[in-house]
Design goal:
The chain is of the alpha/beta class. The chain has helices at 2-16, 21-35, 39-57, 59-69, 84-98, 105-125, 147-156, 171-180, 195-201, 206-211, 218-227, 265-271, and strands spanning 167-168, 216-217, 232-236, 241-242, 250-256, 259-264. It has a 4-stranded mixed beta sheet with strand order 1-3-6-5. A two-stranded parallel sheet has the order 2-4. The longest helix has 21 residues, at 105-125.
Length: 273
């Protein structure tokens, strides 16, 4: 049971992040427990939250959810049942409504403005600026995808054909390519580039490892691509490519935005009309 509680607290800590998101929520929850009189709203904001917290922190229910209903990996989704955002907003508005109740209209307006600014400041300063994360970047096009991904995919698309070919990409492109070209077949997806999945689920892919290697050798990467049904593979253009891919039915097609594209012969013929 101690291990279960340790796992629960680790999940809560990760959910809270580096800010004080849960602290603000708990303060708002305490305020509503003390001040909210409407039964319906108390059920929504207070009692439901209490039930969810009980399910998460009570060792027996936590154990049943982790090992009988779902598993440890997705247990954290139970936290999504806690209405953190709406509770903080409602508590803040309720507090603003009560500020300056017995004051003159002018003083009341001033007090409300000051309290509103303070609440917003607390929320902003106790959080973290999300858009500084490396996953966020300024949009380069209407697809909101990196332009190099679109350029590479446009280059290898079989325009005018209904054939869905097999393609393999470097890790830097994997999470974007299927968003732009949903019809193609890929031997690996996002699960192969998340390190946790590689370790826990053994979902790594040999071809991806070869594409991410320091250099390329046709004698290893081409047979592996063929074995996995890959007709087009993309590699980093700045890395050395040794050997002759044509011995295995592949040939170099084109370099696009720093990436080199190799494909089987018949697709080369299709490209060239």
């Amino acid at each position: 049971m101690i291990n279960i509680l340790q796992h629960v607290f680790a999940i809560i800590s990760a959910y809270n992040g580096v800010g004080l998101y849960l602290t603000i929520y708990l303060l708002a929850l305490m305020y509503l427990f003390l001040s909210e009189k409407d039964k319906g709203r108390r059920i929504i904001f207070c009692y439901i939250a209490a039930v969810v917290f009980g399910l998460i922190f009570f060792p027996v229910t936590a154990y049943l959810i982790m090992y009988k209903v779902m598993d440890e990996e997705i247990f954290y989704r139970q936290i999504w049942l806690i209405p953190c955002g709406v509770t903080v907003c409602y508590a803040g508005i309720r507090l603003l409504m009560r500020v300056g109740e017995n004051k003159t209209p002018k003083l009341k307006a001033v007090l409300k403005s000051v309290v509103a600014v303070l609440m917003l400041a607390v929320i902003v300063l106790m959080g973290q600026f999300t858009f500084r994360a490396e996953n966020y970047q300024k949009s380069e096009n209407e697809y909101h995808l990196p332009q190099y991904v679109i350029d590479v995919c446009d280059t290898i698309k079989l325009v005018g054909s209904d054939y869905n070919f097999g393609a393999a990409f470097p890790a830097s492109m994997v999470q974007f390519t299927r968003q732009y070209m949903a019809g193609m077949h890929t031997p690996y997806g996002r699960e192969a580039i998340v390190e946790k999945y590689r370790n826990d689920w053994n979902a790594g892919n040999v071809l991806l490892d070869l594409i991410e290697a320091d250099s390329y050798d046709a004698d290893t990467i081409c047979p592996e691509a063929a074995a996995q049904g890959v007709e087009v593979f993309v590699v980093y253009g700045f890395k050395e490519f040794k050997g002759n891919p044509e011995e295995y039915g592949y040939s170099f097609y084109k370099s696009v935005d720093g990436y080199d594209i190799y494909s089987v012969f018949w697709i080369q013929d299709f490209f060239h009309g």
